Amino acid sequence: MTYKTIVVHQDAGERSAHRLDIALGLAEAAEATLIGVFALEDIRMPLAAFGEGVGEVIQAELALREKAAAAGRARFDEACRRRGVRAEWRSAASDSLNAMLLAARHGDLCIIGQPYRGERRGESRGEDGGLPAWFAADFVLRCGRPVLLIPYAGRFEKVGQRVLVAWDAGREAARAVSDALPLLRRAAQVDVVVFDADRAAGRHGAIPGADFAAYLARHGVKVSVSQQQGTSLEVGEQILSRAADLQSDLIVMGAYGHSRMRELALGGATRTLLESMTVPVLMSH
After folding, report:
1. Helix 16-30 to helix 171-186 angle, to the nearest 10 degrees?
2. Residues 6 or more apart from 20 whose CB is under 8 A from it?
3. Which side of the chain, N or C, has fewer Cβ within a 10 Å radius?
4. In the 3-class helix/strand/coil scheme, how is 11-79 assigned residue by residue?
5. DSSP code, position 134
């Protein structure tokens, strides 16, 4: 398996260019077509704003969005031309989730940004034109494709040289690893870490992680396996801590191992990583 089509979300925000740089590097390595999707959240108007003149306000906002989309396409086209990457462009002024879902289901890998911290407190991102805070979680759950999330802060010049795989022998983790194989094969080192194996002892076999390491080795992956047990940290926090220890530049994990309602109510590793990721994370559901 290789990635033949990579989809990257573009918007009017300053992080859009960094996501594009990462997407271009992956597309170059895989000789893939890169599809840029300029998608914004719907125009939100407070109830008090509806009245005389609201039509002019909406038209002015739409004009700004068209201008931002044109600027985004020019930047995207020039970057792809300069790097010699085959490229296509999509644009949607509203209904961002469905626009991205449509593109994602015709691609092999999707790249989006981590929700901005202010949005999780109900704050607006102001003029940067990003997606709403709920977008990333809903997109991962519904798109049916692996999703590479790029943190809202920091620069990541290399993604996938040192990879941490969070392995619990569950369906979601198995799907994520299968989806990530094109990246894992190119990685200099892949560290498989089994967290709290005794919580799901029946899924792992005699030695947790051993069978899985053999599977990856058959695919030409340079892999090591370790176990981490008995810390006071929640699993998501353990994953982030271990990634820091290993100097990982990518985390691969399954998303929503419990029901999504339970994840939202109780936290869970998926929610922790969405909120607190420090390096790019590839998730599959």
Report:
1. 70
2. 8, 10, 36, 75, 76, 79
3. N
4. CCCCCHHHHHHHHHHHHHHHCCEEEEEEECCCCCCCHHHCCCCHHHHHHHHHHHHHHHHHHHHHHHHHH
5. T
Q: How far apart are CA 43 and CA 45, in angstroms?
A: 6
Gap between the Cα atoms of 152 and 45, Å rounded: 26
Domains and CATH numbers, the chain: 5-150 (3.40.50.620), 162-284 (3.40.50.620)
Give residue 64's pLDDT.
Answer: 81
Positions of the chain with pLDDT lower than 70, given as ranges: 42-54, 57, 117-130, 198-202, 205, 230-232, 257-267
Q: What's the Cα-to-Cα distance from 3 to each of 27, 232, 254, rounded to whole Å?
A: 8, 38, 19
**In this predicted structure, what is the pLDDT of residue 86?**
98
Q: What pLDDT is stored for residue 229 in this prediction?
A: 76
Distance CA 64, CA 81 (A): 26
